[in-house]
Specification:
The structure holds two protein chains of two kinds.
Chain A lengths: L1 E5 L9 H13 L2 E8 L3 H8 L6 E6 L1 H4 L3 H11 L5 E5 L2 H13 L5 E4 L1 E4 L2 E6 L4 E7 L4 E5 L15 E3 L9 E8 L12 E5 L6 H15 L2 E4 L1 H5 L20 E5 L5 H7 L4 E6 L12 E4 L2 H14 L6
Helix pairs in contact in A: 4-5
Chain B lengths: L1 E6 L1 E3 L21 E3 L1 H15 L5 E8 L3 H11 L3 E6 L6 H15 L3 E5 L10 H9 L3 E11 L2 E8 L2 E8 L2 E5 L11 H7 L4 E4 L12 E7 L8 E2 L3 H11 L4
Helix pairs in contact in B: 2-5, 3-4
The chains are: A alpha/beta, B alpha/beta.
Amino acid sequence: MAVLVIADHDNASVRDTTHKTVSAAQKLGGEIDILVLGQGAQAAAEAAGRIAGVRKVLLAESPALDKLIAEAVADVVVPLAANYDAVLTPATSAGKNFSPRIAAKLDVMQISDVIEVVDANTFVRPIYAGNALETVQSGDAKKVITVRPTTFKAAPEGGSAPVETLAVGGDPARTRFVGEEVVKSERPELGAAKIVVSGGRALGSAEEFHRVMDPLADLLGAAVGASRAAVDAGYAPNDWQVGQTGKVVAPDLYIAIGISGAIQHLAGMKDSKVIVAINKDADAPIFQVADYGLVADYKAAVPELMTELGKTGAEIS
Amino acid sequence: MKVLVPVKRVIDYNVKVRVKPDQSGVDLANVKMSMNPFDEIAVEEAVRLKEKGAATEVVVVSVGPQQAQETIRTALAMGADRGILVQADQAVDPLGVAKLLARIVGEESPGLVIMGKQAIDDDNNATGQMLAALLDWPQATFASKIEVSGDTANVTREVDGGLQTLGVALPAIVTADLRLNEPRYASLPNIMKAKKKPIDVKSPGDYGVDIAPRLKVTRVTEPPKRQGGKKIDSVAALVVALKNEAGVL
């Protein structure tokens, strides 16, 4: 048995999601290799090799792979898959894009968003926005799986696997990278942050959302999230959306401000260690999952919270 | 250019799903069913392309039970021209649906296929990508903007950390994300008109594709309930609790 894990990385280092996907791969058993797709990604490949329990790292580089164009990714992975019993990818937006293409090319039904590996053929995954969990048995000889990273522990560092460079063909002829708008932020990444502060529709406007959420996030060293309602209303960008159709997060502390707690949203944050809800509606469903609920108007509560945090000298990295 | 829009009939997104006590699945009896919301966005985009003159015909396809005709009618009332129902009474997984769609694409030769990025029942987020793979077509998933000009489409995609724009040569597959558009409500006259639009009913056998599910669902359960904790009556007490009791500050 051998498993290929496709790394999530930024060319310089590998993201935590990769470590977590390696730990899901370990549950399948067998040798684990990591594939790093990018451009100028030698440092990321070396970092991937330092994850404990990895046999070797494969590095494939091209401009199209750097942008994770699905056609280019499938061109590399599909022939490579002959050597493996399973191909695992973290369920990031890039992974969700290219992994099913690989699966169909291999005539395999992908197992999406796996949250638990029961055995090498049996997996648990959320359906209906996390309102139900299904256990599925795959009859396919080869498994193509996307892994929801938040539910797996990160595999530790401590390995020293060699890096092999793969020969890569030309870029796909019919798909061209035109451009990107990447939001630069000093704040931690939403998916990896230890603290997340999230705002909902109650904030009422984009200006108010930023006026309230940004200073609080900066004080706590937190990432900012938003409910789908807030994103739909245009208060916050789409990639801040926490929920089944957005990001699934599991920080140590999740503070929901003016979020009622639609099931869709709860599916994206209910694995957080500690949940705090601030909402003026005492009947809001968010209070049913919150460890600490404060029935209050955010307009008064957030400034007070910032003052109190300052007082207790809360110094959070 | 013809645009093909696959649509799925799913439990209405406002309905609270209930897991059956025998853990065999989710209770679908007497539950309101609707078009998958992401597919509705795809239909809207196709109809807008037709209204702008970029598309000439919008064909809607559904793989599902006989009642999926209602879902197709909804799309016809929004402005699609005709429908195809591949009537399948058992569940068909995304790979099977993609195989059926690939055959229909072969017959219909659309210049563009627009579909929802995922169905809100099984949440697989796979059918569009799989169809692109089987046809060996370009794919642009999670679209928030589509601009068709000549034989290419520039598609802006929602990705982690921002937006990415791809130029794809047509024919191509595009999957719709939430912000692509806001679907219209069908007007009463259009609902009446839709009743006269044709729906072709086919069976999976007509396409000679193996649609037996590759994944066997052995059990469906409720997720573990998270216990709500306590209400705290002041911000000061909250901060103390987070610091001393929860240890997260």
